[in-house]
Amino acid sequence: MNHRSLAFRLGAWYTLLLGAIFVLVGTGTFYGLQQYLRSNLADSLRRRSTQVEQILLEAPADAANIAIAREITTRVAPEFNNRFVRVTRLPGTLIHRSGPPGDHSFDPTTVRAFGRSKVAAAVTVTADDQHLMIRATPVNAASGSYLVELGVSYASMDEGLNRLLDLLALLLPILIVCAAGGGYWLVSRALRPVDELSQTAEQMSLQNLTWRLPVTPSGDALERLSISLNNMLGRLRDSVQASRRFLADASHELRTPLTVIKGELQELTHASRLSQSDVRERVGSVLEEVARLENLVSGLLVLSRLDAGETQSEWVEVDLAELTLNTAEHMRLMAEDRGIDIDLSGLQKAVIRGDRARLKQIVVNLLDNAIRFTPRGGGVALRTAADASGSVLEVTDTGIGIPAASVSHVFDRFYRVDEARSREDGGAGLGLSIVKSICTAHGAEIDVQSLISDGSSFRVRFPRHSISKGISLGSDSAGPTSPANQINAALVIDITSSTPTLTPKGG
Predict the structure, then answer these.
(1) Most confident listed range (117-126, 234-243, 476-485)
(2) pLDDT band, residue 266 (cuts 50/70/90)
(3) What topology does CATH give the domain 310-490?
(4) How far apart are CA 300 and CA 428, in angstroms?
(5) Residue 301 C-beta-side C-alpha neighbours within 13 Å
(6) What is the distance between the alpha carbons of residues 130 and 53, in angstroms, rounded to a whole number?
(7) Fewer CB within 10 Å: C terminus or N terminus of the chain?
(8) What distances in angstroms separate CA 405 from CA 119, 238, 398, 420, 505, one per listed residue?
(9) pLDDT digits (tens, 9 = 90+) for 310-355
(10) Cβ proximity of 444 and 450 under 8 Å
(11) Which CA distances in Å does 171 have to 97, 163, 167, 474?
């Protein structure tokens, strides 16, 4: 038996508690019964004493002592009723003393007399040497002043109480032992589902995350714990699957440009005669794939640090309208080359707190995404606004749109609707994932509405509390999952010279 086990400790506490209850109940029963019996005995003495007092009060003034003694013997019969009666006429004349009782429970000749002059009222005492309870009552009658002493043995009562005490002393250890065994059995049985949970958990690994812990329908904390653990296993399985999928996708994305680079370099190595233009073309192809790798690795680094929750930059107040205007002006040349008009008339002042570099990256990625997937002659509109619930950044285009089945996946990593077109534009499917992570870090929500051939609209809503509470990075009051720490996770990497590219559906 493991003395440090939970079952043993609970069983021990259960035994101690029941043992204490048994002792308290037994002690209370014994003393309660003792007081009850003695109270009844004292009440009986009072009634019998009243009977003797009545005899003395009814006696005439010239009544002889022998007549009073004869009347007491006749009406009270102390010897037959196993009682002690002694009547003394004050100051010291003994009128009557009863003889030995029928059960020989005491010797009346050895009962100590009261100090007669000191008894001013009825009093009940015990003579432990004789096991007697005696009631002494002063009586003033026509025939004189008397002291009535009437007693009865409580030896039989003590004998019964002693037997009860012996019985309790015998039963209590037995009850405590039974309580210990029963308590240990009950606790072990109650903890059996926990053992089943631990055994199942020991057998679980990354290869069998579809297993679930047994749920005991008890309606208590154990059932809630089992359900919570199963929910956690479900989330863990989803996370592991997402990580595996992410690793597979990243490997695939990295392999493609590496394969191209390897082929070009091998051709350069094995070719004996190549013109200057051919060499320049192949080197340009290699550099293009290197740029693609650099873009991909940069995006993966951003996501990994966002996921790791690293925090370096501090938050400042940022006007979304000013930030969006400056960013759009820098990207206007790209839009003009594609024949796309950028509408900035909807920019209104909207101040939030956050990392300026990361907020700019949101605008860059969304605007770049809209420009690259909007046909020539189309337009992109940017809007910022603030209301009672927070601030809004909205990027709307007249591009090719997103299929309804793909809208829910546009923020998934490496997700692309049109694989061929995304690769042509250099997209790796990480841009919108980065935007989503930065928005989450800032406590913002992003959603998209789109129709095929009608364009898309990305809306980012920043909560008002990010301003009013004045959250800053590194705040001691922010918990690990608070918006402040989530935002901190986004503020790690400076925007590199090569801007991450986006597909319209997550590229």
Answers:
(1) 234-243
(2) confident
(3) Heat Shock Protein 90 (3.30.565)
(4) 10
(5) 12
(6) 24
(7) N
(8) 108, 21, 19, 18, 11
(9) 545 678 899 999 999 999 998 888 899 899 999 999 999 999 988 8
(10) no
(11) 45, 12, 6, 66
Which residue matches tokens 């949101």? Answer: 362
Q: Where in the chain is the domain with CATH 3.30.450.160?
A: 6-159
Could you give the angle at which helices 431-441 and 483-490 cross, rounded to 10 degrees?
Answer: 140
- pTM for the structure as a whole: 0.48
Can you give the pLDDT at residue 115? 59
Q: How many residues does the chain have?
A: 507
CA 269/CA 152 separation, integer angstroms? 129
Q: Kindly state the tokens that stand for 145.
A: 């002043």
| pLDDT for residue 342 | 92
Residue 11 is predicted with a pLDDT of 79
The DSSP H or E segment spanning 113 is none
* Three-class secondary structure of residue 390 per DSSP: strand
CATH code: domain 6-159 is 3.30.450.160
Best CA proximity match to 361, nearest among 497, 502, 495: 495
Q: Which of 160-169, 238-247, 492-501 has the highest mean pLDDT?
A: 160-169
> b vs e for 350-371, b when ≥16 Cβ sit within 10 Å of the residue's Cβ?
bebbbbeebbbbbbbbbbbbbb
Answer for the pair 329, 464: CB distance below 8 angstroms, yes or no.
no
Q: DSSP letter at 59?
A: S
Query: Which pLDDT band holds residue 420 (cuts at 50, 70, 90)?
Result: very low
Strand locations in 50-188 (E)? 83-89, 93-97, 123-127, 132-141, 144-153
For residues 176 and 27, what is the distance between their CA atoms, to the nearest angstrom? 15
* Bridge partner residues of 386 (DSSP): 391
Helix, strand, or coil (residue 124): strand
Cβ neighbours of residue 164 closer than 8 Å, sequence gap 6 or more: 29, 30, 33
**DSSP run (H or E) holding 279:** helix 276-308
- Other Cβ atoms less than 10 A from the Cβ of 194: the count is 15
186, amino acid identity: L
For residues 375-398, average pLDDT: 92
Q: List the single range of 22-36, 63-77, 294-308, 369-383 with lowest mean pLDDT.
A: 294-308
Number of separate helices (H) and strands (E) present in the chain: 14, 12
Q: pLDDT tens, 72-102?
A: 888 888 888 888 898 888 887 888 888 888 8
* Number of other CB atoms surrounding residue 401 within 10 Å: 21
The identity of residue 370, as a single letter, is A
DSSP string, 15-27: HHHHHHHHHHHHH
Q: Which residues contact 184 (CB under 8 A, 6 or more apart)?
A: 7, 8, 11
- Residues of the chain within CATH 3.30.565.10 domain(s) are 310-490
